[in-house]
Amino acid sequence: MNLSLLVAALLAPTPAMQADVPAAVTTEATAPAKPIFGTSEQRSRGSVTIAGRRIDYQAVAGTLVVHAKDWDDTEFLEAAADADKDKEKDDAKPKAEASMFYTAYFKDGAPSTNRPVTFLFNGGPGSSTVWLHMGAFGPVRVQTADGRHTPAAPYSIVNNEQSLLDASDLVFVDAPGTGFSRIAGKDKEKAFYGVDQDIDAFTQFIAQFLSKYDRWNSPKYIFGESYGTMRAAGMALSLQSQDIDLNGVILLSDILAWDLLPDDPQMNPGVDLPYVMTLPTYAATAWYHNRIARPDGDLQSYLGRVENFATTEYLQALIKGSDLPDEERQRVAQQLSAFTGLSVSYLLKTNLRIQYGAFQKELLGDQEQTVGTLDTRFLGATLDPLSKVATYDPQSSAISAAYVGAFNSYVRGSLHYEPGIAFKSGISIYESWDYRHKPPGAERALIALPNVLPDLATAMKQNPDLKVMVNGGYYDVSTPYFAGRFEMRHLPIPASLKGNIEYRYYESGHMVYAHLPSLKALHDNVADFIRRTATP
To answer: In Gene Ontology terms, what is one molecular function of this protein (predicted)?
Structure first.
């Protein structure tokens, strides 16, 4: 889901998945001699009412098969193969494949040439796309409590008036290994669980989908959330290498440069920029929970003052490190306290640097409550009052069961998809993920935290009509809105292309759509973006 599920948060194929891979979507160079998986497809019909208008649609739940790329980089599959103790036996295994599950919705009576198609995915890495599907833009939506725990089943599944079917056909795609997607074959984890491997798998999927459903001449969009924004930025360039130009890239809760993620300052000293990026979100959270003296004006104007302090006095103080004079240290701590609601004594102990997870634990520590990471509007009982940082995310605990329970009921009851395997909302691959990324123009993958800003910049330069929409929530600690804005300000593109980027922010968290007023605004903004950019 999203970067804290992120942090927190295969099986044998069934006979229904064993059909031959269609010749139209395979090539002699990539198809294994004996396919492990086959494609599947289950069609159904439905309708959704949006703004008083009924939209009839055809739904398709199924799988497409993608194959492991022969990476030129010896850092990837070759290195793993060379390390095998029984290489001869290992070489006999079939080449790795991924059966990627998707749910597509096609509006009845809409000519494919003029009808946009949008591919949507969550992130993790290791997350399925159940969140965007059942919470944001699918034709039905699960109702969850806002800011508190949703009671156990039965869950309410309702018509989604905010579905994007009024503006575009929709394809919700589960990453390899998640949802009903599965991987198999030689070195399957190394083949699909990494930055560049993941981008390649989704690129293959989209190319196949366009052929299978004759959508090559449709306006095309990709919508990524959280780690999915890293995937989306990389795919914008990867798709171009397959002669697929996008009309637009839509980012929600973006994280394109992982250097901006805050860490334990004791473990990563000298890296101060992440603390600057998170401060406005901490201030918004303190504002929301009434832990500060609210000044006159609205939240946005208040955050403007916080952003100015963060990028001037606060940044300058952090840069000085141990040379920071005591008087200045005290002054900055007092201002930080006024913005965050944390005590001056605590902030001095942290050396003015608030570790990831510490704010969530500390803000309402006197009440033994922890605020959310994905959405700091959510509260939960602190599991360990003596811990240094939060040990769970109250929002994830509050809504995850409702999303997964509702989807399992919907996919079988309404979409009639019975794969005979368990649905995996997420898998634990965050720590083992291959974060190396080969930027455009580089000879090899960099041994560094991934940064796909060069990919997106190159894609925009090669396709100057490509539009980018950035969306974020003010109450998101996992991918702070200010970090996303900072990233785009440092996108290496000419001034003439800066107008191709637009920004929308909401008084919600990482999953902006978990707050109904924000979902309505998100729908309207994204639908408008698609309508404006679908034609020249």
So the answer is: serine-type carboxypeptidase activity
